Amino acid sequence: MYIPKHFEEPSIDVLQTLIRDYPLATLIALSADGINANHIPLHLTDDGSPYGTLRGHIARSNPLWTDFDPQTEVLAVFQTENAYISPSWYESKQQTGKVVPTWNYAAVHAYGSLRTIDDSVWIRRQLEAMTQAFEAGFPEPWFVSDAPADFTERLITQIIGIEISVSRLQGKWKVSQNQPPENQNSVIKALRESGQPAMANLVADAAKP
Q1: Is 37 inside any structural domain?
Q2: Which of 77, 130, 139, 142, by CA, is between 20 and 30 Å from 1?
Q3: CA–CA separation, 31 vs 4, rounded Å?
Q4: What is the CATH number of the domain that holds 172?
Q5: What is the span of the domain harbouring residue 125?
Q6: Whether the model pTM is above 0.90
Q7: CB neighbours of 8 closer than 8 A, spacing ≥ 6?
Q8: Which tens digit of pLDDT belongs to each residue from 134-190?
Q9: Per DSSP, what are the bridge partners of residue 77?
Q10: Record's InterPro entries (predicted)?
Q11: β pairing state of 102-117 and 83-85
Q12: Per-residue pLDDT tens over the stretch 79-112
């Protein structure tokens, strides 16, 4: 990923927070037919390693679990909301007119080795851990044990566990850091007025001294 210095996010904590807040990954692997991409929610677990481990599952019918190169890293891409930035939002447009459109976004690239796990006990534990994490904010969280046991056991036979030991993380926060303060402030205001508070908050956080 091309990352100009002013858009680089070096904090591992910040990168891991994005992964936890936006867990739907684009998982890219090398298959016999070339590059293969799947969209899979991945649960980041703290296993004592520097970057953590990503765990999830895929359908047994998905060829990914048998058709990937174990010697080649896979890439999981995580991304927040994104937003078109109109040049008319910049305060400096009124002064010089030297402004152009752009697109704001934040993304994390997680690299590592992929392992597939065909073990019903492991898969159940992964489902329980992922569900507990994703249901935590609900007033009445759902648990795997809420479903009939025979129903759950049958579904578990139809999926395969996957695990990625993360070896490196890259983060790019392209959120108007290259703009002067007056433009950052006007972009924040325009984003809030256009119903995009999440991106407005990202720009505001990046603008803090």
Answers
A1: yes
A2: 130
A3: 31
A4: 2.30.110.10
A5: 5-84+100-178
A6: yes
A7: 171, 172, 173
A8: 999 899 999 999 999 999 999 999 999 999 999 999 999 999 999 999 999 999 999
A9: 26, 109
A10: Split_barrel_FMN-bd, TR_PAI2-type
A11: antiparallel
A12: 999 999 999 999 887 777 677 999 999 999 999 9
